[in-house]
User: Fold these one by one.
Assistant:
Number 1:
Amino acid sequence: MKEILPVWTDGQSSSGPMIIAGPCSAETEEQVMATARELATNGIRIFRAGIWKPRTKPGGFEGVGAAGLEWLKKVKAETGMLTATEVATRQHVEDAIGAGVDILWIGARTSANPFAMQEIADAIQASGADVPVLVKNPVNPDLELWIGAMERLYNAGVRRIGAIHRGFSAYGKHLYRNLPQWHIPIELRRRLPQLPIICDPSHIGGKRELVAPLSQQALDMGFDGLIIESHCDPDCAWSDKAQQITPDVLNFILNALVLRDSTSTTESLTMLRQQIDQIDNELIELLNKRMRVSREIGQYKKEHRMPVLQMSRHDHIIRSRVAAAEEMGMAGEFMKTVLQAIHEESVRQQIEVLNNRI
Ligand code: PEP
Ligand code: MN
């Protein structure tokens, strides 16, 4: 995918981040038009609205369907904004392109499915339309699958491709609705430097209060744009209400964002710091894994009435690890200090096991 063209369409400025805003779902003509009018007044030039909604469970609001395309036509005619919607099947592609939708996006559940991606790519090719397509990352943190989805479009002749980073699903409760795992879009940027990457802070955060900090973070990291869910009456939204903000709040957030000069060093510094954060998290997880094994050893020693401390093993560990670290160019003294601290904590945890406290 060497010659991917920018997503910016005619009349869109290519300077400054690309901003796409609009409701999670088109609900009624009144809601779509009210939201679109306010967004347009605030200077937004690309309007998003989901018409076909992939819902986790049946029974939820699954979108108004093709009827909503008429509302998007009206948005375009009345406000001049470009329109964008999600497509997941051949029929969606045909209907959306037929109705003059300007930008298509692929949802996270669809980009994870190569059959669906191929069907969409084929449908776009068959339509002959030169439509830009934004591809959300798959729900699972699989960079190859994400790139593969975009490759299918590229192979079908689509040249205006962009990626949307919307975070990755994780089991259990977290601060974020979808974990950002920033190292994945960073790696995507490294692999495909000319591919525009847009951040979706609404779906990453899942909460209104996280939209502003996530947007700033994305811009600091050199993302090319933002796609943000905005609704004229978020508390009454039929989907994703916790993360939608009014057009006025969006305006306030966008005005407060600090735009960095992409040639400045801040961007690379932020990316490097992200990598440090990621590595530190991995270190903590690794240490936790090590402590778990230590406790299992503690349990074994307890069952076999063995002493916790075995000095010969301890000396061997320190010596061999220090030598390995020195070989990699780190100071032996530093490695000794780190290992001794880890060892002390392991011993402490084993003693806790012996005393039945863990
Ligand atoms: C959406 O944009 O409303 C949506 C359904 O997003 P995702 O595919 O990222 O979950
Ligand atoms: Mn949504």
Number 2:
Amino acid sequence: MEFRILPSPEPHHALLVLSCQIGEQVVYDAPDSAGPIIAHYLNHTVFQSKPGEFAYILGPDGQRILLCGAGKLEKCSQDKLRRAIGKGIKEARKHKMTHVWVGYPSWAAGVLVIDWEQLVGETAIMANYEYKSYITDKQWVVGLTEVALASVHPMANELVRKGVILGECTVDARELINAPAHELYPEALAQKAQYWGTAFGFEVQVYDEEACRQMRMEAFLSVGQASSRLPYLIVMRWKGQGLNTPIGLVGKGVTYDTGGLSIKPTQGMLHMKGDMGGAALVIATMCALARLGSAQSVVGVVAACENAIAGNAYRPGDILKSMQGLTIEVGNTDAEGRLTLADAITYAITKENVRAVVDVATLTGAVKTALGEHVAGVVCSEDSLYTKLQQASKQADENFWRLPIDDEYRDLVSSDVADLSNIGRDGLAGTITAACFVEAFTGGLPWLHIDIAGVSFTRKDHEYISKGGSGRPMRSLYHLVEGWDREQAG
Ligand code: BES
Ligand code: MN
Ligand code: ZN
């Protein structure tokens, strides 16, 4: 998709006009050529500019206008604006339009957290994506080829580029999540990381099973041992200009989760190709940091494997020794993600000397039950880390909710026969007990744990996220890293 800065639309452009409601009035900015047509339309219809409300207006000279409502001005937010843009882009796709010009809504200046140009770049790229790789009839998969927007900002092109990169990295993460597991197995994931590392200039090192065995990663390797697809530890390094020690980003990379011997029912297995959502985000964040030349240093770690079933599968009742040294009783082979995270985190701390650990994982069904598909669950070691995440999320419009952690919960992952159990006793507080397990491997470092089992994969189309892998919350991770050492306001 091409982006152009263009003060007014050209005849081949469809016009995307954003509107809001002020009192009884529908307010919008439009070029002179379209203003009267829209006014005429509004005089003769009941368009109220509600959130998601949309009208396709055809001008007398063939001008196509996509009028997108963003709701009442006093209730408007940056996300409502994104959704209105996304709605317009999706409708443009539906009508096989390829060139769109987006008008700047002067009424929305007060709701923007990031620059308008970046917002359009991000949102247009995200809204233009659908997973169609395996649809044979490519004819209708046209999509937009050009988005033009008006801007008087002297850095307009750079700002658009930033948005485009964040949008593209989100889409890259979605592609990884949507790719079926027969195509995207651990080695394929490692190759993807290597390909992007070369393309964008971050370092990628891949450890095979034998190398992981030498590092005594028994927790990780046990999960992957029943699969014919071999496990790989993927390490990505980005060194910013600053002299800082790296932040560790650890992503769950289970390329398929059958549940193992504690097998999942068919319905529960259906979307488990997406159980590498955390890995997809970590890889995509590395791409974004490198492409945008971040000053921060970051190490991304993914212990990629497939949780399969065979005679040599690990079993409920097995006792594993983690790389860190703690022993783990396997209460359920379907609680595999935390086992892979444990060794990946130990690797990040002991071999890469990270100063903090951020782990992202499609870890528990419980987080879906608690928070649904649009809010990620967070557990962290310090208030200040959550504040950083909240500030990042305001730029990205991705949602988080913090859950508590204390010794009452920690006690639930104790075991009679080992140092830890991989399941919480009595099925209590599934998301928090998973976090307690992971915490045991963080060595007291600043730690932020993000459970994305709900937000990573959606069953419903959204204005700028099509159903399937969402790529959330990749952009928050990027902003989190970027803002990590910034003074906190307030
Ligand atoms: N990958 C799943 C969690 C998941 C569930 C992700 C639904 C996306 C959608 C994870 O490995 C898992 O199976 N967790 C178990 C843990 C339990 C056995 C303690 C769960 O949540 O049921
Ligand atoms: Mn599982
Ligand atoms: Zn899993």
